Each structure stands twice: as C-alpha cells, then as structure tokens.
Amino acid sequence: MNRKTPASSTPAASPPPEPSARPAGARRFPYLRQDFAASLVVFLVALPLCVGVAVASGVPAELGLVTGIVGGLVTGLLPGSSLQVSGPAAGLTVLVLEAVREFGLPALGVIVAAAGLLQLAMGFLRLGRWFRAISLSVVEGMLCGIGLVIIAGQIYTAAGTKAPDTGVGKIIGLPGALVDALDNPGAPASLAVGAGTIAVVVLWQRLPGKVRVVPGALAAVLLATLAVLVFSLPVATVRVEGLLGAIRPPGADAFGRPAEPALVGTVLAFALIASAESLFSAAAVDRLHDGPRTRYDKELVAQGVGNTVCGLLGALPMTAVIVRSSANVGAGARTKASRVLHGVWLLLFAALLPYALALIPLPALAGILVHAGWKLIPFRQIAALWRGHRGEALILVATAVSIVAVTMFEGVLIGLALSVVKTAWEASHVRLEVVDEGTGPIRAHLAGNATFLRLPKILDNLEALPQDRPIELDLSGLHHLDHACRTALRNWAERHSTAGTEPVRVLAA
C-alpha cells in the first residue's frame, strides 16, 4: 500500500528570482544564451554560402565574407526585422556576374552603393510595403530563372571549364561541355567532388538530429576538402588574397560613371530585386516565429545602409537571405543579437583564418550553389498554379524563360508587364445584353468595365445589330469606361444607322 507523502515534507519549488535579484547581464540580455547558440549555427550556415556566392559572382572570395560581416554588424544592429539575417545571396549572383563582366570590378562598388542609397530613399519615402504588391508569380519566376542560370553555370565550374556568357549559351552548351570534360584528365575528379558535395547536402537531412547540428553545406565542404587533401585530387581551389587585399573601395573616377544609361539600369535592377527579395523574405520569416513583426520601411532602410557600406568597401550587394534567416529562427534565436554575433564570427574567421579558404575545392562550392539553385525553382508552386491559376503559372514560366534568354532585369520587367496586362484583362469584364422585342427600338445594355482590351469584342457585337432599326445603347451599367471605348462607341453610334432610321440613342454612363 502506497503512502502519500505529507505536504509539509515535500520541498517547495524555489520561485524564480526577482528581476532585481538577477545579474545585471541577464537583465540586459535575457536571451543571450539562446542568441549565442543560434549565432554559431547561422555562422556555420553562412560561411560556405558567402564564399560560394562570391566565387560564382566572379569576385574574390573574401568579398562575400565582407558582405556577410556588414550584414551582421551593420544591418543586424538596425531596426526592421529582428530575426532576419542579411548577406550575399545566390539570387543576385547572375546580376553581379553580368555587372562585373560589363563594367569591371571597380565599378561594382559604385553600383552597390548607389543601389543602397536608392533603397534608403525608398525606405524614407515609406515605399517598403508597396513591394508586397508585386505579383508573387513574378517573384517566383525570377527565382526560378536565377536558379536555372546558377545550376547551368556551376556545372561548368564543377567540370573545370569556362561557362558561356549568356544564360541560353550556358544551357545549350552543357552537353558539349560534359563531352569535352571527359577528355580532360582532371575533369572526372572535379565532377565527382561536385556531385559528392550535392549528395552530402541532400542526404545530410536524413541523419539523426544530433549530427544535423552541423549544417549540411558546411559538412559537405569540409568532407570535400578532406577528400581532395587525402587523395591529392587535381581539383582547383579558392584563390585567396587576404581580407585587406580583397577590399578595394571604388576610386574617384568610378563615382563619375552612374550617369551612364546602362549603369543606371543595373543600379535600378540591384535596388529593386534586392529590396523585393529582402521584403518577401521578411514576410516568410514572420510566419516562422511569434515575435515582433517586420517594419517594412525600416527594414528597407536597414538594407539600404548595409548596401551603401558594402558599396563603399567594394563588396557584394546584400539581401536578406531566407536560408540563414530560417536557420536563425530554427536555432532558437530570440533577438537581433544572434545576427550581430554571426557577423562577429565571420569577422574573426576572415581576420584570423583567411588562408583556410585556399583549401576549399571550387567544385564543392559549385555543388553547394547547384543545390541552392535547385531550391530556388518552385516546382510545387508551378504545379499548384497550373491547377488553379494557369495565367499566373504562365507568367511565372515566361519570367523565368525571359531571365534565361536575356538578362535578369529585362526578364523581371517582362514578367511585371505580363502581370499588369493579365490584371487589366481580368479587371475589364464587360457584358453586352441585347433585348429585341420585335417592335420598337433594340435595347443594348453594357455593364462592367469597358476598356480598350475588350473593345474589339464590343464593336463586333454592336456592328452585328441591324442598321434599319432604332437602337438604344444603355451605358448606365458600366463601372468604368475608358477614353478609347468612349470614342469608339461614339463613332459607332454616329455612323451605324442607315438613312431614314433614327440615330442611335446613347444613355450616358
């Protein structure tokens, strides 16, 4: 028979200490332990991505670390989104590569700084929330096109060959490049390292949770580096210049170039695409936690400050990055301290261990980016849109194809134009009802929104009405009648009736 323990003999749970009794550090940083642990996870996720994005963009690897450091220490301290992490993003790789190829590396800093100043202006003008009005199909199409170009380009890197300059050239030239790679003695080893890196990243998610404390991308790069060293594989590795050697602030002559029309277009592309990607990422991160919501205008200002600083240092542009941000939330971060600390760890690594980068195989970074590019392709969204909204699915595909066929900026503009046309077409629903009682005038009622997009159909139906009968055209049911339709209907009414027949009577809208 079990005996109950007397209540008096049970030691009472000690109450939590009063706020005044806690150490001063705990009162000021109540979540320091959680944020410290999360910052280490974000650092380990960010390190290979910073280096990989820089190499894929055609700039020194250290510049990717510089952008990550600024994203942590500068943007991370500013208000906006408390748990979102900024740094160099795969989404801008294609645009940076095009800019460096066309204008040269010295001009990159000017472009990034000018884009940052434009973001600042948009933030101060409270335009941040307007980016949420951009069609999601255009954004998904942009990411899909970028993902395709990244995958195609990085396969060349994994094979140890030079990629063509255009997106179409990269994709069309893949079969020939792979055939040529078989004749290169070092290509099979290089391709094997790249393929092995992708396999490790994919399979890492299936391992026990304790193992997955180490991010898959970092584990893949470390294993690839170890394999190259142990087996002495003939594989290219990252070129190292040192942190101070890689930073090249733009000179005075470079600041005179923003007036060039082509460069202005590139600045606009950087600012608009980086802003859209950051604010869409903020919306996604807000769904992952219950903390304070993003203040979009302030976040846009924070991104602008970060990009301005990156430009003055000659580094890569930054955006908020969903991979790092979701890792930050998943690791238990509670405040912005985690993203600031991740910038500290990147700075310490870049300052104390820069030559460790020289051990990293380029095919391993290519594998990391191929995996990142694959994740940018929204397969599920395309299938869902095709089932429910085929027009949106076509806009997504058209945007992606345009980015591959021309440039990213022009592809996004094409997607936006198609989205506007589709919206205008759907908004211009108009209904024409004709009532003919056999005697008296024929009554034609127009209802809805009459725009130039529907004008041909309206005129076809009206011109089919008999010309020897009086007609009443009732426009009172129209919510909107644009100038083109108003003029065309007036002209039709003037010329429709035959001689001896009453003119068309128009009841005004």
Automatic annotation (TrEMBL):
<feature type="transmembrane region" description="Helical">
    <location>
        <begin position="394"/>
        <end position="421"/>
    </location>
</feature>
<feature type="transmembrane region" description="Helical">
    <location>
        <begin position="137"/>
        <end position="156"/>
    </location>
</feature>
<feature type="transmembrane region" description="Helical">
    <location>
        <begin position="262"/>
        <end position="285"/>
    </location>
</feature>
<protein>
    <submittedName>
        <fullName>Sulfate transporter</fullName>
    </submittedName>
</protein>
<feature type="transmembrane region" description="Helical">
    <location>
        <begin position="186"/>
        <end position="204"/>
    </location>
</feature>
<dbReference type="GO" id="GO:0016020">
    <property type="term" value="C:membrane"/>
</dbReference>
<dbReference type="InterPro" id="IPR001902">
    <property type="entry name" value="SLC26A/SulP_fam"/>
</dbReference>
<keyword id="KW-1133">Transmembrane helix</keyword>
<feature type="domain" description="SLC26A/SulP transporter">
    <location>
        <begin position="32"/>
        <end position="399"/>
    </location>
</feature>
<feature type="region of interest" description="Disordered">
    <location>
        <begin position="1"/>
        <end position="24"/>
    </location>
</feature>
<feature type="transmembrane region" description="Helical">
    <location>
        <begin position="103"/>
        <end position="125"/>
    </location>
</feature>
<feature type="transmembrane region" description="Helical">
    <location>
        <begin position="344"/>
        <end position="374"/>
    </location>
</feature>
<feature type="compositionally biased region" description="Low complexity">
    <location>
        <begin position="1"/>
        <end position="12"/>
    </location>
</feature>
<dbReference type="GO" id="GO:0055085">
    <property type="term" value="P:transmembrane transport"/>
</dbReference>
<feature type="transmembrane region" description="Helical">
    <location>
        <begin position="216"/>
        <end position="236"/>
    </location>
</feature>
<dbReference type="Pfam" id="PF00916">
    <property type="entry name" value="Sulfate_transp"/>
</dbReference>
<keyword id="KW-0812">Transmembrane</keyword>
<feature type="transmembrane region" description="Helical">
    <location>
        <begin position="36"/>
        <end position="56"/>
    </location>
</feature>
<dbReference type="InterPro" id="IPR011547">
    <property type="entry name" value="SLC26A/SulP_dom"/>
</dbReference>
<keyword id="KW-0472">Membrane</keyword>
